[in-house]
């Protein structure tokens, strides 16, 4: 039996074109392990053509954004999984970024625009029609990107993945959004002693129906999967003498949904949507109002970067014009204003509209 309604985008950014000293090869191993489990006919039952794996050279920023665009082909009744493993860090523009193969650093921070920003991620996710979207992030940032990150047993990825405000805002990108991050904000996500990180190992085990995962009438539920991940990761971290607790973020009142077949079930019954949130775990329930409030701020950024916008690092002694009723500004000091009339800024500045220019 196959889980035909399942689609997945699996990303493991293990190498970097412009900063090879922060390579984390285990991210690729993690991503490969997740895909292998999802398309396993004896467990999850995803169709191979509906699971896209991206890593290294195929995980440039443009490639990742294009792959997210392709998820717009999903149907409302589908289940979509997005798994990301790599670095996460703040950029020079103050935004949080998931790094890509072609990410650049500037002064120890991500160079603005050279990774997948939280704003871009939000914009892509809100275009996905599927009402069952599970986001899995093992993307932790730290103040310094260590030269041996990922190369030694027991080393840490960093501090935390998506900031709290970003996770909360992402819940408003559509119905049925659930986010699982590898650790709590104040903790780190540990690699451990195996070929894949302890978070991904727990995820793969859970998707295989192991441990704490319960059988929801032939399927694995998002809540059941999280419960297994939480306890396996916590125990694995304790064995290393560390502390790590994966966190689930969900809108208050939103229930679980099926994410895969349970151990390759050949017969699936009615899914129990009344399944309760797991107890004794780290669940962050968010009100819809709070999520919508934070989402509005993100939407404003998207609209500010619309099709008639101009972005440039440096412009000197030049005129930039764009859009209908373009305003052309000349003078020592210039500023781009969406629409203006009779306005002059700076020493000897003049403002000419196309209408005035035509009359001359």
Set out the fold topology.
Blueprint (H helix, E strand, L loop, with lengths): L5 E7 L13 H13 L12 E5 L5 H10 L8 E12 L5 E3 L6 E2 L2 E2 L5 E2 H8 L6 E9 L23 H7 L6 E5 L16 H10 L11 E3 H18 L7 E5 L6 E4 L20 E5 L1 H17 L22 E4 L19 E4 H6 L1
Parallel strand pairs: 1-2, 1-3, 3-8, 8-9, 11-13
Antiparallel strand pairs: 3-4, 4-7, 5-6, 9-11, 10-12, 14-15
Helix pairs in contact: 1-5, 3-7, 4-7, 5-6
Task: Explain how this protein is built.
The chain is α/β, with parallel strands linked by helices. It has 2 domains: 299 residues, Rossmann fold (3-Layer(aba) Sandwich); 49 residues, no CATH class. Helix content is 25%, strand content 20%. It is built from 8 helices and 15 strands. Strands 1, 2, 3, 4, 7, 8, 9, 11 and 13 form a 9-stranded mixed beta sheet that branches. Strands 5-6 form a two-stranded antiparallel sheet. Strands 10-12 form a two-stranded antiparallel ribbon. Helix 4 links the parallel strand 8 and strand 9. The protein starts with 5 loop residues before the first strand and ends with a helix.
What is the alpha-carbon Rg in Å? Answer: 23 Å
Largest sheet: 9 strands, mixed
| CATH arch. level architecture of the largest domain | 3-Layer(aba) Sandwich
Query: Poorly predicted ranges (pLDDT <50, ≥5 residues)?
Result: 141-160, 308-330, 350-360
């Amino acid at each position: 039996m196959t889980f035909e309604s399942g689609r997945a985008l699996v990303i493991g950014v293990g190498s970097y074109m412009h900063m090879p000293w922060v390579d984390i090869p285990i991210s690729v191993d993690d991503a490969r392990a997740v895909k292998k489990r999802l398309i396993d006919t004896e467990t999850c039952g995803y169709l191979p053509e509906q699971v896209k794996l991206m890593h290294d050279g195929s995980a440039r920023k443009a490639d990742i954004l294009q792959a997210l665009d392709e998820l717009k082909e999903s149907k409302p009744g589908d289940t979509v999984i997005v798994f990301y493993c790599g670095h996460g860090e703040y950029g020079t523009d103050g935004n949080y970024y998931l790094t890509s193969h072609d990410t650049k650093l500037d002064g120890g921070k991500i160079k603005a625009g050279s990774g997948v920003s939280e704003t871009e991620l939000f914009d892509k996710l809100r275009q996905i029609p599927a009402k069952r979207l599970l986001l899995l992030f093992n993307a932790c940032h730290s103040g310094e990107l260590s030269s041996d990150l990922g190369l030694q047993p027991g080393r840490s990825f960093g501090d935390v993945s998506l900031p709290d405000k970003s996770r909360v805002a992402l819940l408003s990108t559509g119905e049925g959004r659930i986010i699982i991050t590898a650790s709590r904000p104040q903790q780190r996500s540990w690699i451990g002693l195996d070929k894949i990180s302890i978070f991904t190992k727990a995820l793969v085990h859970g998707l295989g129906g192991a441990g704490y995962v319960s059988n929801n009438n032939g399927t694995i539920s998002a809540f059941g999967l999280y419960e297994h991940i939480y306890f396996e990761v916590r125990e694995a971290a304790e064995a290393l003498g560390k502390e790590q607790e994966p966190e689930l973020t969900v809108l208050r009142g939103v229930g679980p949904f099926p994410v895969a077949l349970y151990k390759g079930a050949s017969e699936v019954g009615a899914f129990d949507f009344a399944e309760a949130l797991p107890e004794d775990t780290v669940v962050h329930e968010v009100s819809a109002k709070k999520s919508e409030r934070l989402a509005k701020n993100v939407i404003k950024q998207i609209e500010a970067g619309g099709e008639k916008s101009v972005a440039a690092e440096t412009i000197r002694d030049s005129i930039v014009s764009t859009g209908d009723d373009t305003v052309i500004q000349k003078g020592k000091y210039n500023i781009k204003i969406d629409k203006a009339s009779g306005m002059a800024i700076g020493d000897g500045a003049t403002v000419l509209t196309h209408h005035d220019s035509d009359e001359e």
